[in-house]
Each structure stands twice: as C-alpha cells, then as structure tokens.
Amino acid sequence: MTKTVEFxxxxxxxxxxxxxxxxxxxxxxxxxxxxxxxxxxxxxxKATGNASPAMIPAKGRYMFQDLDRFAKRYGVPLRIxxxxxxxxxxxMRAVTGIQLHQPQRFHxxxxxxxxxxxxxxxxxxxxxxxxxxxxxxxYDPQEILxxxxxxxxxxxxKENTETAIRRGVxxxxxxxxxxxxxxxxxxLDFVAEALRQS
Length: 198
What we know:
This protein is α+β, with helices and mostly antiparallel strands. It is built from nine helices and four strands.
C-alpha cells in the first residue's frame, strides 16, 4: 500500500519553502505520494495562540541563521525576504483556486511564488509585485484575482485551515503520514524514516 504525505503549507513561511524543495525527492525515493494542502497560517496562529518565531527578535535571528544552514545542506537557494512577514491571504486563495480549477498548472504556480518570495525576495504584500510575478510566468493577473474572489475557493481554503487546526496543526510546515504529525522542515528525516517503515 502506497504511503501518502499530506503537506499543509503556506507560502509565507521560509521553513515551508525548504520543506517544499525536499519533499518531492523524499517521496520519490520512498515511492510515496505527496498531497499538497494549502492553508492559511495566520488563521492557524490565531486559533492556536501561536506566532512566528520571528516575532521574538533573538529567536528570529537564530531561526534565519538556522534556515540558511539547512539551505546550504540541501543545496538550494534561500534569501530571507526583506519584506517578511508577508500577508498571504490572497496568495493562498490563489493557490487554492489554481489547485481546484487548473490542477495541471498547480506545481508551476506554487513554484514561481515560492521562488519569488524566498529566492528573489519580492514584496508580495504589494498587488503590483504579485501581478508582475504572475505575468512573468504566463498567468493572467485578472484571472487569478477572479479566482481569489470565488466563494468556493474561499470556502475551500477556510475548510483546509479548519481541518488542519482540528488535526493538531499549530504552524507550518506540517506533514501527516496517516494520523502522525511532523512539524518543521528540520523533521524531514523523521518523515523519510516513517515512509520507509513497512
């Protein structure tokens, strides 16, 4: 029976970006499936009383240094976005809309946004910057904006977020194998280990 990793993610988390760069390889090596589940990290924080480590200056400085160490270990580019934190409500609605209505473009869509945020350091708090990134990658910004205003898309993202909270998610990235939760990109070795177990 093929195992599945459910990957609860929000684009605004640099740790989630690092997990995103590694999970496909881990799943390929373990012949497992990877399921992407967009959620709204701000909603999770509000419901659980959690907050970004970056809100505590000393912890934030350490976290960014640690993420840089992991990026070097993984051999992937990482630039801490100078505009962090990013309000991801519209972005995550767009991601959800693409997943629902244009699933064949989903991987390219999240890839261009993750890279815009965590490689190029773009200010995706600004609608004009988002539109520029989308246009560069062959998307119609007006079409994407329409998706973010679609009630079914809003409802799907809300449901994903509420489901994550019910399952015990308190931050991102969060990964489930069955009912077992793994939190943080620094726990990917445990994810791989669980997938290898028969």
